[in-house]
Amino acid sequence: YTAGLPRDQGQPPVRALLTDTGRSVTFQLKMPEARSVHLVGSFNGWSPRADELQRTGEATWTIVLQLPAGHYEYAFLVDGTTLVLDPHGEFYQDDGFGNRNNMLVVGNIHEAAI
């Protein structure tokens, strides 16, 4: 089972593949000028160093995480200083500080109530 939030042609930037151990979720950001990109979110305590994306190609940064089914907020931290929303994300949540975070629901709607 593959799920994503497609907003453009080709592969969606966030994909979730169902496995026996949870969900393998792929996050991607197209940011050619970045020197580093980290994924921060509710799944890693918003740690600015926990999940570093790897450059795949000239412009794309990618990371694959194993996440249990659930509801998460996330953003990308570019060069350690700039929070960037997933430009392909369809859902957002106000963070209570005047900013927004991307929303991600991992799992099947039949597994649990949201």
Keyword list:
114 residues, mainly beta, 6-stranded antiparallel sheet, 5-stranded antiparallel sheet, 0% helix, disordered N terminus
Explain how this protein is built.
Strand 8 (70-78) and strand 9 (82-84) form a beta hairpin. Strands 4, 5, 8, 9, 10 and 11 form a 6-stranded antiparallel sheet that branches. Strands 1-2-3-7-6 form a 5-stranded antiparallel sheet, with no helix packed on it. It has no helices and 11 strands. It is an all-beta fold and 114 residues long. The protein has strands at residues 2-4, 14-19, 22-30, 37-41, 51-52, 54-56, 60-67, 70-78, 82-84, 92-94, 100-106. The two termini are 19 Å apart.
Number of strands: 11
Main beta-sheet strand count, sense and barrel state:
6 strands, antiparallel
Q: Which secondary-structure class do the elements indicate? A: mainly beta
Give the fraction of residues assigned to helices.
under 10%
Instruction: Report the average pLDDT across residues.
Output: 80
Q: Quick one: overall form?
A: globular
Low-confidence stretches: 1-11
Radius of gyration: 14 Å
